[in-house]
Write a structure and sequence with these properties.
By secondary structure, the protein is mainly alpha-helical. About 85% of the residues lie in helices and about 0% in strands. Residues about 20-40 have low confidence and may be disordered.
Amino acid sequence: MEDLLAGESAHRVSMSRLRAPAVILVLAVVSAAISACTSSSSTSSKPAVCTSVQQLKASVTKLTQLDLGANALDTLRTDLTAVKQNLKTVSRDASSHYSSDVAKLRADATQVQTAVTAAKNNPSASAFAAIGTAVKSLSSGVTALANKVASTC
């Protein structure tokens, strides 16, 4: 009888040893699946407008940090080209939800362009002040849009 109990006890021990690795394997697979779902859903759920608005904001910030020197107007024109390109991307990504904000930003960018052209044609303190005012308005508009978009990001 003891041999029978010893055999049964050994069988239980060996079954327990087999179950432990199986449980660990199942937990590892489930954990990996949950991690994969979490990471893929968090990156794919972020709308494209989040990134494009951040790029626009960075390009407008560059306008506000312009070093006034010999080539300042040329640099401003180049930087404004990047702003306009980023604004096109925002317009595409934002669809109709932010269309009035994007329209205002386009008008502000046009004001910057007009001020830069006027300063190039007739450099004066008032012409450069107009550039500063136009850039400030554009920057404020971009910040306002970024704050609105942030809730969806």
